[in-house]
Amino acid sequence: xxRLFSFLMIALLVGTLGxxxxxxxxxxxxxxxxxxxxxxxxxxxxxxxxxxxxIRHVRNFQGSHLLHAAMMSNDVQMYxxxxxxxxxxxxxxxxxxxxxxxxxxxxxxxxxxHDRYDAFWFDPxxxxxxYAIAVRQEFADEHGVSTVSDLVDLAGDMTIxxxxxxxxxxxxxxxxxxxxxxxxxxxxVAAMDYGLLYxxxxxxxxxxxxxxxxxxxxPAMDLVVLExxxxxxxxxxxxxxxxxxxxxxxxxxxxxxAPLLGAIDEAAIxxxxxxxxxxxxDYDTVARMMLEDFGLLH
Length: 298
Hints:
The chain is an alpha/beta fold.
């Protein structure tokens, strides 16, 4: 079964690359939305600029488990993810009060990836992209809501949109959120792709959505993020993870990407995400623009 899964992952990668066996020194992978694709492309560009390595960027992976499995089978040598995603995903941890501290979660994920998976979890890019409840500004003004707790008496008459992953997550998913906030239920839960969530809220098709806090469509569509006043959501610091085999073979990678680590705040990544999701710019163009803004391309 393990060999079959590895074969399927290789087939997926080849299919993504258009079915052509192209020469490459490493593969960097990213998920199916703008943020990880921009970051992965930026890492690829920096490495190729400073070395003779050829990096293939494979994007649109569906879910953290597929990314992780691809790295474990060495079909992928690097990918972009978030501490909270891997904390409750491959690492199988439960989010309790003691695991709401960003530094503690980061240190745990870094150590466990080294010990369990022979992988190096780099320091974060600098921003926390956690889940967030977003509503229209008009809705917030009409009902006087600014925190998630303010929804307790309103939820029974509301429709909330989310992707299926959040609804089924354990520890920091939908049902755990209801329990912590004392919300009996929302009138209706609409499961949809993240690409549809924001427009559905903005158009009034749903009343609220479980969004990504750094998504550029939030300010662009005049949406409001409600304060997570009970601190339900764990930290989601965006980071690069790579196999130790690749990093040890190319230790210069540390210095090459160091200027990006800790340098990208929430406002900056939201802006670059907006260029892709709202302005319809290509992720690779935006990645180059970001590196130029940081003075890293030459």
